[in-house]
Amino acid sequence: MIAIIDAFSLGFCCLAMAILIGKSKNSPLMRDQKLLLGGLILFMGVYYFCIFVKWAGITGRLEAFENFEGALIPMWWAFVFYALMNMIATNEIKESESKYRLIVENQSELILKMDPDLKIRFASPSFCRMIGKPEADVLGRPLLSILDQKGESFLPYEVFNKTVDPSQPAYFEKIVKTSQGERLLAWHLSALTREGDGKDVFIAVGRDITEKSRTEKKLASMDHRYRTLMENLPVGIFRASIEGQGRLLMVNKAAAAMLGYDSELELLKIPVSDIFSDNGQRRELIKRIKAEGVIVGVEAALRKKDGAIIFGSVTMNMIEDENNIYVDGIIENVTNVRQALNALNSSERLHRQAQLIAKVGHWEQDITTMTYEYSEGLADILKIPKNLTLDFDDVKRLIHPEDLQTVLNEFGKSVKSRTEYDMTHRYVLSDGEVKYVHSKCVHEFDADGNHTKSIGTVQDVTEIKVLESDKHNTERQLRQAQKLEAIGTLAGGIAHDFNNILTPILGFSQMLAENLPDDTRNRESAQAIYEAALRASDLVGHILTFSRQADAERMPVHVAAILKEAVKFVRASIPSTINIKQDIQTNCLPVLADPTQIHQIIMNLSTNAYYAMQEKGGELTISLKQKRRTDLFPDLEESDANGMYYLHLKVQDTGQGMDKETMDRIFDPYFTTKKRGEGTGLGLSTVIGILNQLGGRISVESKIDAGTVFNVYLPCMEKLPSAAAASSSQPAKGNGQEVLVVDDEGTVANMLSQMLKNLDYVPTAVSDSLTALELIQAAPQKFALVISDLTMPNLTGVELAKKAAELNPDLPFILSSGLGDGISGKASESPNIKDILHKPITRSALGRVVNAVLNPEN
Amino acid sequence: MLEENELIMLVLGLAILIRLLTTYERLRKIPHNTSLLLSFVAFFAATVATICEGYLLPDLFNLMEHLLYMTSAVLLTFWLWSFFKHFEGGAGSQ
């Protein structure tokens, strides 16, 4: 049994030996290691053989050898274990070497191991590649013989001359020639190290820093340029902290100069809060930059060193690092820009105001797009929205259709001839208003001669046009007035002569009629002559009235009388298809007015009524009533009332009537519904003007196709004229006073003398003013009164009165004249002229006036 | 009776065993080291059994001695086969 076991043991040892011999080729075992392992197996096999033999009983002579073997086997085990561990260590070293070799061979850095005499003991593949030589040509050769091709020392000798401690690592940079040209290498040289073989070596690690150096140089250059640029920029550049008062961390020269500091250092000492004129604005900016990160172009008021305020446009960017928040920014001095902008704004405002005042606008037409830009002034003129872009059709719509073709033709001509376009035309606004404009423009052309732009102005000349029209009308009216004046002058002259002729006719016929027996044909004839002379006298009066010879002074006027005269005049002027119906209250109170103006009111209203009935005929009703104020204007305050009584003048027609829009405008000056040349549009506005002067009123009622009623209210005079003076038909008689009558018309002088004699006066008639003066000089106190013609040869009535006053200041004068009311002003030229008699003179008028002058107390 | 050669084997085996235990970490790097170490341990146990058979149960310890020798031979053979197989498979390059 034991023997069998030993046999198996021996067999396994044989098998192990076979495996070792057969398989050890591909193992990492070294030869001696294999031998040791084989020895162990052999010793174990021999030992098992010996004990097999012993237990098999074949022989016992091997026992001593067995014991020897058994003692050696543990030692072989020890050898085997040692060999195996050695193998493991060797493998580990190989693996490590392989790993580090891999690192070194793939390293871009140049790695050299050198002796102190610079012989290369190891060179990395990168070094070999760099110098373009195989490793074999490098190893063992001095480094200087490889690289020091320019006779320069590759490594600083002082490193090796022990001037520098070789135990300390060194760093230096060197340009060397390589297979890639000259390269800059940075070398880290280790301290002198002793290797395992006892030799001292340097480890040099080099890095190609050519690109890095170039980049650094480039960066340095850029940095220099940046700094130069920053220093020379005309805008201020700064970096500042924002906490607390703020501290400037960096500024450039321009910033210092902008704020009036001598240097950047001086400015850096100033807190940011002191630079801002308004610290509230600074806080606001900090708040904004914290919220938004960037602020662009904010205008800030900054305080200079000398305290002056400038305005800077500040652009800032917030920079935030781990510890601090600060801002980088630029400041541009915009004080001048601001001033210029203010000036520009002011100028633009003035320009706009000037355009507004001058009613001028401007426009630009882009020919490419056929669009128009226009100013506010033009928008105001054309009543179009501001800041719109008009196209060509819009503009064409605005131009008056009658002017459009002319405008387009003129514009085209000016473009073709490259001359200024200049014409006056009309625009029709959106509300229908027509405006006259004076339009001018110039054109711009490109290098090829194509029309590119037109720039023009438009001036509103509507008012000028209206004024021109008014001027034309006024001139026409002036010419008419001049004609009337000429006629008036002529009529006045005729009236003077006529009155002189009528005066004796009137006087003598009246006296003749009075002296003849009643109911005789002669008396009737004389009476007829008197009445005819009276009518002739009225006629002269009318001529003087219509020729405006009468004074425009306000005086008590009996409107009824003027109205009757006017109706007669209207009747004669309008066709018989228009029936005139009148209802005139004759006993109305007088009105304090200019008779001419009253006449004008009546004529204007009557003319309008006639115009309304011109085509179809109709009825013109004119009425005059005296009414109490309270009946007419119950709502009128007492203080507003002019008097207790008003005259109500009503002018009513049955014509075409008016709509409300027309009624709203009829009192506007120059508004007329009449055809061109038939009316000025000033009639009713004149009426309004007169009534305003007189404290009167006017109202109008109208209905289409029914007619129109004008109601005119004129305040009556508070005090009625003396009833005695107004109604007395019996002339006041004298008391034998001596009266001197002077008239160059002898007949008139005799007639007056006769009348005075009939009135119980003692007249002296002379036909020469000088004779009259002599009579007065001869006896200044003789005459109680002088009645003198105004217009006489040698001395006029006024001159005579003046000279008489020198002789007897108390001698009263009455002037007589055939010139109508136009002479009333003469009365004030001499204090002794007390009244005026208008020719032809009736006896009653003569008696009343003479009596009034001689007895003023009555 | 303790023989001289057995004592030498025991002392040497014990010393080697102690050394192996102290350098166990390095021995672990040997491929399939368990088989090798057990082979040595079996050999050392056989030596101990040889000495023991002189004092008690001589037949049993004698049998154990021979069985342990055989175990040691088998384990050594198995380790050799595994060791070379390990490198044949390319694991040795690791």
UniProtKB/TrEMBL annotation, chain A:
It catalyses: ATP + protein L-histidine = ADP + protein N-phospho-L-histidine. Residues 493-718 form the Histidine kinase domain. It holds the Pfam family PAS_3. This is histidine kinase. Residues 96-144, 222-264 form the PAS domain. GO terms for molecular function: ATP binding; phosphorelay sensor kinase activity. Residues 421-473 form the PAC domain. PANTHER family: C4-DICARBOXYLATE TRANSPORT SENSOR PROTEIN DCTB (PTHR43065:SF46), SENSOR HISTIDINE KINASE (PTHR43065). The chain crosses the membrane at residues 6-23, 35-58, 70-89. Coiled coil: none annotated. Keywords: ATP-binding, Kinase, Membrane, Nucleotide-binding, Phosphoprotein, Transferase, Transmembrane, Transmembrane helix, Two-component regulatory system.
TrEMBL record, chain B:
It comes from the Bacteria. The chain crosses the membrane at residues 6-24, 36-57, 63-84. Keywords: Membrane, Transmembrane, Transmembrane helix. This is Uncharacterized protein.
